[in-house]
Amino acid sequence: MSCPKLRKVADLGVKGPVVVAIMDGVGIGRGDEADAVAQARTPTLARLASTSLCTKLAAHGRAVGMPSDDDMGNSEVGHNAIGAGRVFDQGAKLVAAAIDSGALFRGAVWRDLVSVCVQSGAPLHLIGLVSDGNVHSHIDHVLALIREADRAGVNTLFVHALLDGRDVPKTSALTYVDALEAVLAEVRQKSARDYRVASGGGRMVITMDRYEADWSMVARGWQTHVRGEGRPFPSARAAIETFRTEQPGINDQDLPPFVIASAGRAVGPICDGAAVIAFNFRGDRMLELVRAFEDDALTAFDRGTRPNVRFAGMTLYDGDTQRPRRYLVAPPEITCTLGELLADAGVAQLAISETQKFGHVTYFWNGNRSGTFSDALEKYVEVPSYAPPFDARPEMRAPEIAATVLRELAARPYGLVRMNFANGDMVGHTGNFAATVKAVEAVDAALATLVDPIMAAGGALVVTADHGNADEMAERDKKTGAILRDKAGAMIPKTSHSLNAVPLYVALPEAARELYEWDPALRAPGLGHLASTLAFLLGFTPPDLYLPSLLRRRC
């Protein structure tokens, strides 16, 4: 579609730069002892609360394109909504609909992979995250693939199960593994097929690296899934129970890799002639695995002999590079993002974050597009992340990100700056409450360095978040909401995102402060309203295809 042109309006917006700072994973919690945001010392946020326009935004469920309001938001869909100015049906919803309607199984890619297996007797391999977190994957999707493969006549199927503990309770792996094993056993019993788990391991140890932060994770996954090399166990349950005995308190996401073996041999290495499906619907932590299977030349690690297989992803993970080449469900087409419209209008833009969230202020903000819209007008800055564990240095790279923004603003008159502080999310995912408190305090300290310079330049500082996490660090009783505790009385850590709203602060220079107010007509606004709001602050009339601006001129 052709995109609308932004129309400049005289005397609208602010004179200086508009800087939007996304506090990743910092939502609005209950203010109790499980709320690391409330427990943190945040004088900058307190200052913004008393001197700026403040409200809250929906950042989960249908407000960001997820199937229902019981579904958590995440950084990818959050940044999609912020940058696109409206809400698109996202991976989880698209895949569920394609499965429910049968469209996925009528598609050419599924039919081709299945026919290869049926005709040759080669196995179908399924690789992905086994949980119901609905952030990267959903166990219902892989179970549907298994059942349909059986109906289609596939005789041998292997699951390479990545364990979560991040988007779901930290030691819940056996819940999902048992459910998976039950379906595999059901198929085996009724049709004498060979359907079983072949390998696995924690998602933060093998396979699911992102942004090329640690290719050794992918190398370990390749060794485990493809070569069938690793510590052998008779079952995934046996592996998990053994690791937990050896390392008490270990999170599922950190479990070592394992292979399922019989008679001294791995039951399901990936060999020539097989078909392979990566069943995660979210792309950032699958792209490196895709490259390992698809790229003719790969220098990131030694693959050895790459098996000749038919490979597909659940959906298209990267529209720019067209990876993977084949996929089961087409992704949403997100066009006319704010970055594209501003580039067309001649507005200089800066995007900056550390490695762990760099793709969010670039690729996801731009509607799943990797490159710039204008090399002359846009600059993307990636500050290298420290190596995990992130709770060891909860300040992460927040100070450097803020300092770099100030240096860039001093060197060039940017119109829009978009930045992401990864701390609340990446440290929150560790379940370490004390470290998460420090992470939030580090973000607050970084914001403190930005407020006065941006106000002095006549700009606007927009502070918000893409979803909650640090605001809810303990598991709760689903009926009463009470904090769940272990036998020693300690809170049971929660490592997944929350369903809480996120804050929005709009700090304006004194001359502009009395000119604007929240639009009272907007009820229960969400992240999708931010693009119009940013365009408004930049002096443009927001386009009609966007959700309306949260701000208006005072009457």
Topology overview:
Blueprint: E1 7-8, E2 18-23, H1 36-39, H2 43-51, E3 53-57, H3 75-84, H4 91-101, H5 103-106, H6 108-120, E4 124-129, H7 139-152, E5 156-163, H8 173-191, E6 194-202, H9 215-226, E7 232-233, H10 236-246, E8 258-262, E9 265-266, E10 275-278, H11 287-294, E11 310-315, E12 327-329, H12 338-344, E13 349-354, H13 355-364, E14 378-383, H14 398-411, E15 416-421, H15 423-426, H16 433-456, E16 460-464, E17 502-507, H17 510-513, E18 516-518, H18 530-537, E19 540-541, E20 551-553
Parallel strand pairs: 2-15, 2-16, 4-5, 4-10, 5-6, 7-8, 10-11, 11-12, 13-14, 13-15
Antiparallel strand pairs: 1-19, 3-17, 6-8, 8-9, 16-17, 18-20
Helix pairs in contact: 3-13, 7-8, 14-16
Can you put this structure into words, describing what you see?
By secondary structure, the chain is α/β, with parallel strands linked by helices. The chain has two domains: 7-90 and 333-553, Alkaline Phosphatase, subunit A (3-Layer(aba) Sandwich), CATH 3.40.720; 92-329, 3-Layer(aba) Sandwich (2,3-Bisphosphoglycerate-independent phosphoglycerate mutase, substrate-binding domain), CATH 3.40.1450.10. The protein contains 18 helices and 20 strands. The chain has helices at 36-39, 43-51, 75-84, 91-101, 103-106, 108-120, 139-152, 173-191, 215-226, 236-246, 287-294, 338-344, 355-364, 398-411, 423-426, 433-456, 510-513, 530-537; strands at 7-8, 18-23, 53-57, 124-129, 156-163, 194-202, 232-233, 258-262, 265-266, 275-278, 310-315, 327-329, 349-354, 378-383, 416-421, 460-464, 502-507, 516-518, 540-541, 551-553. Helix 3 (75-84) runs parallel beside helix 13 and helix 7 (139-152) packs parallel to helix 8. The longest helix is centred in the C-terminal third of the chain and has 24 residues, at 433-456. The model has no long low-confidence stretch (mean pLDDT 96).
